[in-house]
Amino acid sequence: MRDLLASLDGLRERLREIPQADERRLQELKTEILGRKAGVLTDILKALPGLAPEARKAAGGAANALKREFETAIDARERELAHAARRIPGVDLTMPGRPQWRGGLHLVTQVVDEICEIFRELGFTRVVGPEAETERYNFFALNFPRDHPALDAQDSFYLGDDVLLRTHTSPVQIRTLETYRPPVRVVIPGQVYRRDPFDPSHSPVFEQLEGLAVDEGLSFVDFKATLSAFARKFFSADTQVRFRPSFFPFTEPSAEMDVQCQICMGSGCPTCKQTGWMEILGSGMVHPAVLENCGVDSERYTGFAWGMGPHRIAMSRHGIPDIRLFFESDVRFLEQFAGLVR
């Protein structure tokens, strides 16, 4: 009995080690003293049944009390070590956390995806092409004369004698017609490059989206119906549209398409220059020469094509006054449109 109590007194001295123990030493003490198989205190408790009843009661009370002291001291030290591990020098963990930046699609990307989805419902497939093109694909196959001003170096970014950064996405029309036989219905989004000044309404690099449909029997009626359906789907069901005569080398006849100004709804404002209309795309029936340049029989097939600027369409829909806002990566501007994906 005396030996047992003396062992408990000696064991109590080891409580002093716990407040200074590191994580590894604390685990060693826990195993050495409280371990189920070879713990010193566990062995003492196992020896209690061999004592006389009175001695067993006294020794058992002292042993269980000491066990609780060790458990309390070890738990306290474990909490201290865990708290210390979470502390970072110079950082106040009680300060409110900063909100995380939430990624989102750029407004122009959203507009491109939405337009492509509308035309997908009308039977058009989305295709892309290279941004570096030869003069043939960028100009000549599209019926541009060789003395056209667009071929001048001051209008186009030339990479070599016959290679330039495409000035429109129309070269993909040629590549598509050379690869696939009609019927063809495609929409073509992509970046284009021009020597334009960087001002509120122009940019030297911008997104463009074109469309092409070639089949037997396509007429100007199909052309107007398709683009009118797009405008009323994209803007609103009661949006008014109009077509004005124009000229493009690769279409004949050609037309500019206007929609009712979405800011003033036709009453006239500075954005639409008091006309009540906003031009959104150029279009027309595919010129027979373009079809022949691609090996398509222009006597059998007809088609229509159009090209639009998603930047300007986004500006029209949301009343954005300056195209440069799209390129400045200002989160205060961009986050206004982060939740507009439909």
Task: Describe this entry's structure for a reader.
- The strands form 2 sheets. Strands 1-4-5-9-8-7-6 form a 7-stranded mixed sheet, with helices on both faces.
- A hairpin with a 2-residue loop joins β6 (241-248) and β7 (251-260).
- The chain contains 11 helices and 9 strands.
- The protein has helices at 2-12, 23-34, 40-47, 53-86, 107-121, 135-138, 171-179, 220-234, 288-293, 310-318, 331-334, and strands at residues 125-126, 132-134, 163-165, 184-193, 205-215, 241-248, 251-260, 277-286, 302-308.
- The chain is an alpha+beta fold and 342 residues long.
- It is 37% helix and 19% strand.
- The protein has 2 domains: 2-86, no CATH class; 107-337, BirA Bifunctional Protein, domain 2 (2-Layer Sandwich), CATH 3.30.930.10.
- α5 packs across α10 (310-318).
- The N and C termini lie far apart (82 Å).
List the defining traits of the structure above.
about 350 residues, alpha+beta, BirA Bifunctional Protein, domain 2, 2 domains, two-stranded antiparallel ribbon, 11 helices, 9 strands
Gist of the model:
The chain is α+β, with helices and mostly antiparallel strands and 342 residues long.
Task: Outline the secondary-structure elements.
Blueprint (H helix, E strand, L loop, with lengths): L1 H11 L10 H12 L5 H8 L5 H34 L20 H15 L3 E2 L5 E3 H4 L24 E3 L5 H9 L4 E10 L11 E11 L4 H15 L6 E8 L2 E10 L16 E10 L1 H6 L8 E7 L1 H9 L12 H4 L8
Parallel strand pairs: 1-4
Antiparallel strand pairs: 2-3, 4-5, 5-9, 6-7, 7-8, 8-9
Helix pairs in contact: 1-4, 2-4, 5-10
Report the CATH C-level class of the largest domain. Answer: Alpha Beta
Could you tell me how far the N terminus lies from the C terminus, measured between alpha carbons in angstroms?
82 Å
Q: What overall form do the CA principal axes indicate?
A: rod-shaped
Alpha-carbon Rg, integer = 39 Å
